[in-house]
Design a protein that fits this description.
about 425 residues; mainly alpha; Na+/H+ antiporter like fold; 20 helices; about 0% strand; PILS2/6; membrane; Mem_transp_PIN-like; transmembrane
Length: about 425
């Protein structure tokens, strides 16, 4: 018995092959999650009826500020400083990994949905909620919390944070395209909408889908839903016809939704970072325009606390009324599929890519970010797209439960990843 106890103590305390003991690895993995949980709890407290500093309108404004200003500033400053043309070629697997994560996640979602058989019309909804993970906000938060600790396994705090943020930002533009093409089409409402009373057959109610009915229903879940843009061709000149056709293509491909502030910041940062003259002009410490980059860095640092306060505040209302529509069984299947079935598949993909020589040799942060892309809870932006398509309440319910359980699942997966990498 004494021998077993000594062996257990040695395993827990003494350094393993990567130079870290099991207890140290657990500490490194759990502390970032604890920091995230603490800040979310403070947001929940600020939004509660007892304090009420972050009411619904306040959280909406805070989310808009993060999405339109703080997150683009963080992406621009971190990605622009880290990237070069050579590194962009070297990092090619990051966007590919995002695509693979969406494909494998959707296949797992299809299998789960086929087994669980969610209520009509939430079959495709279930696939999307399992298949599309958060590749931006939550990984950025975790990297910031992990790198802030001087004992982190990735070395220098500043380099850890800059590399991690750059890798995550480099894949965001692909995620946005997937969201506003694949997810947007998958969540297309049935003929009777998501509020149909018949559980077996879609309701056909042309009056409900008319423009007048949509105009009278001013709720954000229904307003932009079912009114499809149709091409209007004028009888004037060919130039006008071409202009109308291009406008129709622009609206049909949802380019307005794809071209958003974080994506614009990513593209601009990649362009400037890959042109040596422009990079020296803006991103080097002694550059004449470095004051702009430094200002973006200051604003970008505010993104993490703001988004966590808003996320915690959004949990104050609980899962909401959407839970009753999709049912406890479907919700549990989505949580289990997203947090327990998708990450092992991602681990296999990343390990295979490493063995095939697709990844930069020796860059452990690169591999860690790739693994995080398969491990995150359901994308918050997928919930925003669901809101546009009329199933926002159901998506909010799923996001609530997935993020609650993700606090525990992410800690477990990060412990496993750190043991594999180190």
């Amino acid at each position: 018995m004494d021998r077993v106890q000594r062996l257990l103590i040695e395993v827990l305390i003494e350094p393993q092959k990567g130079g870290q003991s099991v207890l140290t690895t657990i500490k490194i993995a759990v502390l970032p999650i604890a920091k995230v949980f603490t800040m979310c709890f403070l947001g929940l407290l600020m939004a509660s009826k007892y304090v009420n500093i972050l009411p619904s309108n306040g959280r909406k404004l805070l989310n808009g500020l993060v999405f339109s200003l703080l997150l683009p500033c963080l992406i621009f400053s971190q990605l622009g400083q880290a990237i070069t043309f050579e590194k962009m070629i070297e990092w090619w697997f990051i966007p590919v990994n995002v695509v693979i994560a969406s494909i494998t996640g959707s296949i797992i979602g299809l299998v789960v949905a086929s087994i669980v058989r969610p209520p009509y019309p939430y079959f495709k909804f279930t696939i999307v909620q399992i298949g599309i993970g958060n590749i931006g906000n939550v990984p950025l938060v975790l990297i910031a919390a992990l790198c802030r600790d001087k004992s982190n396994p990735f070395g220098d705090t500043d380099k850890c944070s800059q590399d991690g943020n750059a890798y995550i930002s480099f894949g965001q533009w692909v995620g946005a395209i997937i969201l506003y093409t694949y997810v947007f089409q998958m969540l297309a409402p049935p003929p009777g909408g998501y509020d149909g009373e018949d559980g077996n057959m879609p309701l056909k109610n042309s009056a409900r889908n008319s423009p007048s009915a949509l105009a009278s229903d001013a709720s954000p879940e229904r307003l932009p839903l079912l009114a499809e843009a149709t091409p209007v061709y004028s009888n004037s000149t060919n130039k006008d016809k071409v202009k109308d056709f291009l406008k129709y293509i622009y609206e049909k491909l949802k380019l307005k939704q794809i071209v958003q502030p974080p994506i614009i910041a990513s593209v601009v940062a990649i362009f400037i970072g890959c042109v040596p003259f422009l990079k020296k002009l803006i991103f080097t410490a002694d550059a004449p325009l470095y004051f702009f980059t430094d200002s973006c860095m200051i604003l970008g640092e505010a993104m993490i606390p703001c988004i966590l306060l808003a996320l915690g505040g959004n949990l104050v209302d609980g899962p909401g009324r959407g839970s009753a529509k999709i049912g406890a069984r479907t919700t549990a299947a989505i949580v289990f599929g997203r947090l327990c079935l998708v990450p092992p598949t991602g681990l296999g993909v990343v390990m295979l890519a490493d063995k095939l020589g697709f990844l930069p040799p020796g860059d452990k942060m690169f591999r860690f970010v790739l693994l995080l892309q398969h491990t995150m809870p359901t994308s918050v932006l997928a919930g925003a797209v669901a809101n546009l398509r009329g199933c926002g309440k159901e998506a909010a319910s799923v996001l609530f439960w997935v993020h609650i359980f993700a606090v525990f699942s992410m800690a477990g997966w990060i412990i496993l990843y750190l043991n594999i990498l180190f």
